[in-house]
Amino acid sequence: MAVKEVKLQTFEWQGKDKSGNATKGKLDATNVAAAKARLRSQGIIPKRVSKERVSMFSNKNKAIKPLDIAFFTRQMATMMKSGVPLIQGLEIVANGAEKDKLKKMIYQIRDSVSSGTDFSTALAQFPDYFDDLYCNLVRAGEQSGALETMLDRIASYKEKIEALKAKIRKAMTYPAAVVVVGIVVTAILLVKVVPVFEDLFTSFGADLPAFTRFVVDLSEYAQKWWFVALLAVALTGYAFQRTHKKSQRFHDWVDRAVLKIPVIGKILHQAAIARFARTLSTTFAAGVPLVEALDSAAGAVGNVVYRNAILQIRNGVSTGQSLQNAVTMTGVFPNMAIQMIGIGEEAGSLEAMLDKIASFYEEQVDNAVDALSSLMEPMIMVVLGTLVGGLVIAMYLPIFQLGNVVG
């Protein structure tokens, strides 16, 4: 069922209450007339109503992030566990939302539910924010009559997955930071510092050492072509991003390549296993059949190597294989995870064992990222020291030989 788009705006108002006391505040309405009508219905005589001024640094106009969805889910779970009805809970959460886009979306969900649509169906109208896994879990909660429990489970799942993503981003950021800082420092020295020395060297009237000549030539090239180099880097980055997004083959190649990067690859392996176990545990606990749960895990794992492996596991399980044997056959999961899955199957506590596997590998990722951070700090100093030291030596070599030149 289509939902009529609600175009709400935030208005600042000043007026007098029933006792004649001056009061002011903010409210959401479609226009000024609607805002005044709403104030009058609350017993307030409006004197001034105007659109809220939004700073360019405000969160109001920012896009909805996955962390916002996790927070929304946690709020709804808390509301429903406290006995607040679903529609009223959506109203409360929408009123408290800082981002206009999020507020508008929640109001649309509320209106859809008010008109008789299932909560899961209302959420499915926004597939960019509520994927199939999310909607299926909510639908399972609705059908079992335990929506508040399911929302709490989804909230925990989303929070842990987003925390894991943040750790992976942190791990990828440090090596990039080393490269960027090194390039920026080198560019500044070549464009601003080396030319000063070059003028001094010209007055010597002698041939420069090979290393110094190389740096001076590099400086001249950088001064002449810096804009072209910058444009080439920007275009390369843009082309990579577009190709990665549009070409599945290239996307898959990158997924396989990053797993082979020293240190980083190990972190990504552990993160993929943690996502697999966390997603499978959550869906299996919700009563989703194992084969369907594996489909959800394949979509959430975030790497083509593990996605293909999980699809292989699903095919094996669907033909009667045990989960442990199917996981073993892929050849990508570590022995410890395989043994724990086997123990969980035998004991009838697969959900709990998968949860333990997820927690273990999430902790491994956390420790690995912290270790990488500690490793990268001295590495940054070494890179900068080598670049700056090399340029300084190149610039001072002619000065050290000045006596020979003059003689």
Verbal overview:
The protein contains 16 helices and 3 strands. The protein is mainly α. The termini are far apart. Helices cover 74% and strands 6% of the residues. Strands 2-1-3 form a 3-stranded antiparallel beta sheet. It is flat and about 90 Å long. Helix 3 packs antiparallel against helix 4 (100-114). One of its GO terms (cellular component) is plasma membrane. Belongs to the GSP F family. InterPro entries: GspF/PilC, T2SS_GspF/T4SS_PilC_CS, T2SS_GspF_dom, T2SS_GspF_sf. Its main location: membrane.
Q: Quick check: average pLDDT?
A: 83
Strand content: 5-15%
Main beta sheet, described?
3 strands, antiparallel
Q: Write out the strand line-up for the largest beta sheet, numbering strands in chain order.
A: 2-1-3
Globally, the shape reads flat
- Poorly predicted runs of 5 or more residues: 1-6
**Helix content estimate:** over 70%
Number of helices: 16
Roughly how many Å apart are the termini? 92 Å
Number of strands: 3
Please state the CA-atom Rg, rounded to the nearest Å.
Answer: 30 Å
Order of helices and strands: EEHEHHHHHHHHHHHHHHH
Secondary-structure class:
mainly alpha
